[in-house]
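In the present case, backbone shapes were mapped to integers, as reproduced here:
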Amino acid sequence: MAVTQAVKYQIPIVITDEINGVNVTKEIDQGTLFSLTYSDNCEDLSKMIDLFKEIDKVVKHFVILNKLCKVVISEKLNEIQMYNVQFFVQDQEVGGFIAMTVNPEINHKSCLIEGYIKMKRVTICSNNTSKDNKIHQTLFSSSYVPFNLKKCNFSVGMATLYPYSMKKTKANLESFDPLLIEDINGSDVELIKIIASYFNATLNLHYVYRNEENPYFDSDYLKFVINGSLDACAGGLYKIYGNIVSYSGIYSTQAIVWVYSVERSTRSWQTLVGKTHGLYVFLIFYILHSIVWWIVCKFDDEAVSMKDTLLYSWGALVGATSVPDARTVKQRVLNILYLIMGLYLSSYVSCQIYSYLTIDEPPSHYDTVEQLNASDKTAYLVPVSKYFVKDVKYETMANMSRDCVNFKDCEHKLIENKGSTVLIDGHLPALQARTAVNDEARVLRVTDEILTIYHEMILRKDSPFVKSYVKVTQRLYESGICRKLYDEAIGILLVDKAKIANKNILSNSYSCTVGCKITLLQLAGIFYIWIFGCILSCIIFVIEILINREKLYN
């Protein structure tokens, strides 16, 4: 009957004559799995229940009993309630089947988990077919009832990792020390509050130690989960402990990326000279014009001096003097073309000065690890955890990196030395907002990701509310609440400020908002040069007076 229903609804099945759930389930990694077994006596039922614990896949168990076996079911009640098991016993009086489901329930007085048997009559079956579709609804429906803790304690261990859980002072804390809810904050803390409220539980938080820079070495806190002292653990944890514990499923992802320091070029006269690098073209035309003018004058038998030609040509080019008087048509043509070139030079220099004083160009930025590696940015990494990933591109930069103590020290050296480092992307918005200058970011990231981290909470494996916990966590994740809590833990204003600062530094925009004008302060260098020239002229004038007076007396 069940096989027929499975084929009808395209549910993958494996049929075996031997009760060996380990071999059967390890061969299948996908699909909806169920096991259908038949027991003639209660002794076989007891052995069958013992085999359920060896199955590491999510399996729906259907057990058809020839007898009710109330004694065995009562003895194994605490074990049965951990699995998705449904029993069927033939009703001798009516001729149909009675479905029995074991459901866990907590005693609100003792706060101990107990189980009760729920019985429901299902449709009569004959010749492997059912008279209606109710049998399918009974067997394959995914009814979900949240577990009610009835205000009993829900103990959760909290590790610290920004922005999932953060505590200002934790130097004197040891694993399993109690925490006050108001003393710790972060997205996981808010998530645990929601889940505790959903379970109608009293939330108790405990501190668990876990190294933030290299979290894979610390697992001492797992003993509190395994022995039942803690029901769950959170705080940016990972699925790295095998099947000795259960997991909530992925509720948050983080990327580990290369970040580097950037800044716009500061305004200086060296920068202005660099922007006007095309001036050498005008100098070439100035020399050519002077030579041609001297040749033309010689050809016309006019007295001309190369020194005077160079001096007057330069004055005409920069607008300080007029061009020499033209006496022939050839000279007039040369003067006209030279004046046009002088006007073009004036426009070119004016545009460059205007651009230099009003437009901020974006700095050099890198999209790939290869581009960052080819730059002059020095990498700063924590020595004990720098080789956390095996990748040629990453290891090339890690080999040439310099040392820093922790994330904070790496961030400090990143800014101070205009280098690069590796950060979790959750740290980047706060760093960009904190170090921004004139609403422009001083830290950017490359597009390539070194690694993507998938965060999962840890649960006690034999906990009766694991399924409910996973269900509510995934629903919170799919609804976007987990991401919303993550952004709020960083700070919505910080995230928004980081986005604006990141956009500003990469845009080629005007630094002013309404009409860009060149102020006297911005052109102060020109006046300083003019004043210096006047002082120099006065000094020369005084020297000439003294020399002429000495000659007069002699």
Observations:
- The radius of gyration is 41 Å.
- The chain has five domains: 2-140, 153-251, 269-360, 362-455+480-510, 518-546.
- The CA atoms of residues 146 and 198 lie 8 Å apart.
